[in-house]
Structures are given as C-alpha cells and as structure tokens.
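Hi R.,

Here's the chain you asked about this morning:
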Amino acid sequence: MGLKEEFEEYAEKAKQLPENTSNDDKLILYGLFKQATVGNVNTSRPGMFNMRDRAKWDAWKAIEGKTQEEAMNDYITKVKQLQEAASS
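And the predicted structure, written out as tokens:
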C-alpha cells in the first residue's frame, strides 16, 4: 500500500476517534490533513470573531513548509497514537 492510500485509510479511521479527543489533538490532525492535501496555507486568516476557523487556520499555518509526504506520515502517526490512547 502506498503512502497516499495509507493516509486515506487513516483519514477514515480519524473519523471514528472518540468524542473526548481533545481539541488540541483535533487541531493538530486538521493542520496535518490540510498540509497533506492542499499544501501551504493559501487563504487569509479568519477574523477574530470567527474563533473556530481561526484556530483551524493557525493549526495549519503552524506546520507550513512541511512536505505533503511529511504531513501524511505525521498524520498517520498521530491517528495511531490517538487510537492507542483511546483503547488503553
């Protein structure tokens, strides 16, 4: 299985993470997913009254410069960590 297929598999698994997954972890996954699928941030930062989208944008911006392959690998690793934490 190639990296892209494995990434897509773990993107599906991420949807089944428990409800109590922290917002910080969700933001990390969001940033890695966007970097892996889109690349560097290509939009302007949302306004200060749009806190949710602003946090998501910041999470994506924080990993700017990672290659798409690095982001895919990091995403897979993070989902595995969260799955292990949820099952223990």
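The chain is about 65% helix and 0% strand.

Let me know if you need anything else.
M.
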